[in-house]
Amino acid sequence: MKKTLRFISLTPLAKIPMLILGLESSCDETAAALYEDGVVLSSVVRSQVDLHHRYGGVVPEIASRAHLEAIDEVTRQALAEADRSPANLTGLAVTQGPGLVGALLVALNFAKALSFALNQPLTGVNHVKAHALAPFMHHPSGEKITPPNFPLAVLVASGGHSHLYKMDDYLTFNLLGRTRDDAAGEAFDKTAKLLGLGYPGGLSIEHLAKEGDPKAYALPRPLLHTGLDFSFSGLKTQVRNIYQQENLTARPANDQALKNLAASFQAAVMETLVHKLKGAVKLIRAEGAVLAGGVAANETLRTAAGEMMAEISRPLYVPPLEWCVDNAAMIAHLGARQLAAGHSLLELSAEAYPRWPVT
Ligand code: KG4
Ligand code: ZN
After folding, report:
1. Domains of the chain, residue spans
2. In this structure, are residues 162 and 184 in contact, taking their beta carbons and an 8 Å threshold?
3. Can you tell me the distance from the alpha carbon of 269 to that of 142, in angstroms, rounded to the nearest whole number?
4. For the segment 243-279, what is each residue's pLDDT rounded down to a tens digit?
5. 13-139+323-340 against 152-319: fold identical
6. Which atom of ligand 1 sits closest to the CA of residue 299?
7. The whole model's pTM is what?
8. Smallest-distance ligand from the CA of 203
9. Radius of gyration of the chain from Cα atoms?
C-alpha cells in the first residue's frame, strides 16, 4: 500500500509560528539550517571541496557517499546551534532539484524520513529559486530588510546556472535568458583548472586577477548584443589558446602574464553578466535587480552590478557572501514561504528532479 504523509492542518500554515529545518545536498555541500519566523537561527555547511579538489571537479559518486556520511551530523549541529530539538519543528524543506541525482536523493530521503517520523509537512525546493531569494532572508543580528518592489530582474550565476529571470513575487518567476553552453561558474572552474589553480576556480581566479590588468588581453564578450542568452565556452577556448601560444605553462603561479590573463577573463565574464542584467532590467522595467549564486560572491561583479543599478537609481539586492554559495538557510527560507502558501508539499513517493526549470 502506498503510504502518504499527513499534512492537513485545520489552522492555516501562515498563522502557525514556523520553525523550518532546511536540508541541501544537490552538489558538493551538505547543509542544514533552522529558520524561524523570518530569521535564520543556524546555518551549517560541510563542504566536500577537499575531496573533489584533486579531480578538478565534482565526482558524483564521491559526492553522494560524502553526503550520506555527513547529513545526520550536519542536521544535529544545526539543531544544536539553534538550541532547538526535532520536536520543535513545524515543517521541513529540502532541495528537490536541480542537481546531481545521487546527491539530491540523500537529503531528500533523509527529509522524507524525518517528516514522516515527526508528522510535519515537507516541501520540495528548487535550488536555483532558493539562490534568487537569498538576499531577502534575515540574519538574527542583521537589519530588517525592506521588502522589495516587484518586478525584479534576477541573475543567478553559479557552477550549474547562468539564468536571468523576471520575478513577479517571491514565488513567481519567468525565464528571460540562459546560458547556451557553460554556466559562468563552470567557465571559472574550467579556466582555473587550465591555469593550474584547482577546483573550485572562482575564488582563486579572483585572487589572481587582483594584481592583473583586465585590458591586457582582448577577449570576446560573447553574444553581447544578441538577446539575453549567454555563451561562455568560446571564451574558455580563447583563454586556452593564449595560454598555449604564450607558453604560460612554464611560468610560475605568480607570473604577471597569468595574472593579466585571469583579470582579462574575469572582466570578460563579468562585463557580459552585468550587460545582460542591465538588458533584463530595461526589458521588464524592473524596480530593482537581484544578483545571486556562487559567482555573486565575486567582488568585481558585485561592484559593477551595484554601479550599473546606481546609475538608474534602482536597488541591487545581493546576499552576504556566506549565502551566495550553497547553503541550507536559503532552502529553509524559500521552504517557509512555500509552506505558508501551501505549495509543493511532498509525499513519500516524491522524486528528485536533476533538471528542474524555475517557474
Ligand atoms: O552556488 P554555488 O555554491 O553552487 C552551485 O549551485 O553551482 O556556486 C559555485 C560556483 C563555482 O563554480 C565557483 O567557482 C563560483 O561559484 N564562485 C565564484 C566565486 N566564488 C564562487 N566565481 C567567481 N568569483 C568568486 N569569488
Ligand atoms: Zn547553488
Report:
1. 13-139+323-340, 152-319
2. yes
3. 31
4. 999 888 878 877 899 999 999 999 999 999 999 999 9
5. yes
6. 26
7. 0.93
8. 1
9. 21
